[in-house]
Design brief:
- The chain has about 120 residues and is mostly helical.
- It is globular, with a radius of gyration of 17 Å.
- The chain has 2 domains: about 35 residues, no CATH class; about 80 residues, no CATH class.
Length: about 120
Amino acid sequence: MTYIMIGFAILYVAIEVLLNVNESDEDTSNVILLKAAQKKLFFIPFALGAILAHLFLGTEDANYRMSNSMYPVLILFGAALLSIGIAYLIRFNKKVPIWVLSVLLGLGLLYGHLLWSMNYMEIV
């Protein structure tokens, strides 16, 4: 599993280097994700915040423990599907403001930190 993650990291860095040295402007993954989030895929900041907090910030307080099962992942996936559905049902004429995306990122960080933590101690 570790080798797979290392392979994906190397692949990502190689793609970013290629995108940065080509002739086209504003085609790195950061710019592509920002533009997609500002148009209709505004679940991206929430999902990124949840994943980052899950991996790096998790709490050890068992009061926030949701479960050891797939429920946190399913809730995240359901929220993404719901936000995509809302985005396509409601016609946005303007881009989603950066402050809204920042709030979604913060909510994702809270979700990943409190409800989807990797740091819960196993009860023996």
